[in-house]
Structures are given as structure tokens and as C-alpha cells.
Predict the structure.
Amino acid sequence: MSLRALPPSERAFATLVVLVLTLTLGMGLGLVFTRELKPAGPNQTPAARSRLTAVLEGVMAGNVTPAEVQRFKAWVAAGATQAEFAQVEAVVANNCASCHAQGGQFPRIASFEDLRPLAVEAGPAGLLGLVDAGTLHLLAFPLVFLVAAGGYLRRTTLPRRGLLMGTCALAVLFDAGQWWVRQGRPGMGVLWATWLASLALLATLVVLVAVVLAELWGPRSGQGPVRNNLG
Ligand code: HEC
């Protein structure tokens, strides 16, 4: 079946779905750019309300005393430097590393190199702050492509649709994979993989959207004369 053969109301609905999916992926990639691709240079100052502070007052509050939270906060406020890491080193070793050591709970928190990115990174803010990175890479992105490719591409008569659907699946798998590998190693030097994954997702979606829109609203191909012109 060609999508072009659908009644206009259904094609308008399909277009709306495509636009919503594009917007969803766009916002998701926006989050990836601001949270994961921002360069965390050695001189970057910690965020006003860092992810570390947010976590210590939130989900991890049970693992620290208020006095220890103050120590972490003081360290963050003073620039989260290596020179002053000694202030919190013992707390990290006693209160965090037991669960967050190599091979344990993500993210890995055992050394200065592990802790500093959490101090530099801004904590969750607003409604979008509720969307964590795992949800984004493992759920939201795959869902966008599942609906876009599975829901609409499958119904088209495009000769190369198998190739396009395969490319979508690869882009999603690569993105989820690179996120998984990066877990527990915040700020590690595999950022090129994140760049590549984001660009792959974006490029695949642009092609996908172009193909589906052309199928929906473009000139009819194949069967006989173009009816529009004949009235
Ligand atoms: C008893 C085990 C345990 C200890 C001790 C512990 N954590 Fe966690 N931590 C977890 C688990 C389990 C999760 C994942 C659950 C979650 O995110 O709610 C987690 C998640 C986190 C996260 C990611 C959550 C996010 O939203 O960013 C950070 C950061 C973190 N812990 C920091 C710390 C720090 C810093 C300490 C030391 C003060 C610490 N944790 C001590 C078990 C522990």
C-alpha cells in the first residue's frame, strides 16, 4: 500500500505523528548536547547546583550525614579541585566506594577523576530534569524509531525500506551501546562515540521523515497516469 492512497485526514494525522516524533527526538538530542557533550575542561567551574549536590540531598541522602553533605558542598563551592579533594576523600572511600567501586553500581565513584564530573555537571532542573540519560537512550530514542519506522515505513511500498529500517535499528543500537559503555565513566574520553551516535540518529531521522513525508504528500508514483493533472 502506498501512504499516498490514504484519505487526507489520515495523511494529516500521520504527518502530525511524524512531527511529534521529530520534536521528541530533537528535544532528546538537545538534552544529550547540553548534558553529555558539553566539554568538562579542567578549568570549568562546578555548576551552581551540581548533580553531586542534588544526588547527596536526594537519592543518596541515606548514605551521608548532614555534616558530610556540607563537606561535599564546600568542596564543590571551592571549585571541586584536586588540591582540595583530601577534604572528601575519606568520605568517598567509606561512604560511596563500597557500592560505586569499579564493577559496582553506576556511576563509578572511587577517585577524584570519578567525582569531579559529577560536581561540574548541572543537577536536574525543571521538567526535563526528570528525564535521565538511561531513559533517553534506552527508551525514548528506540521508541521514536519504533513508531516511525515500524508504524509507518512498514506500510509503504518503498523498494529500499528494508535498508532504511535496518539503518534506523543500527543507529538506535549504536546509541544505546555507546551510552552503556560510557556508564560509570563520566567524562571519559569516548565522547566521539556520543557525537557519532547523535549525528547518526539525527541523520537517520531526517532521511526517514523526508521519505515518509514524500510518500504521504508527494506525487503518486507507479500506477498509470498522474490523476491530479487529468482532473
Ligand atoms: C548502599 C549502596 C550505595 C552507597 C553506599 C552509595 N550509593 Fe550511590 N547509588 C546506589 C544505587 C543502588 C544507585 C542507583 C539507584 C538510583 O539511581 O536511585 C546509586 C546512584 C547514584 C548516583 C546516580 C544517580 C543520579 O541521579 O545521578 C550517584 C551520582 C551516586 N549514587 C552517588 C553516590 C555518592 C556520592 C555516594 C557516597 C556519598 C553514594 N552514591 C553512596 C547505591 C549506593
In short: Residues 113 and 128 are 27 Å apart (CA to CA). Residues 224-231 have pLDDT under 50 and may be disordered. The two ends are 23 Å apart (CA to CA). The pocket of heme C is lined by residues 51, 55, 59-60, 63-64, 95-96, 98-100, 105, 107, 109, 118 (CB under 6 Å).
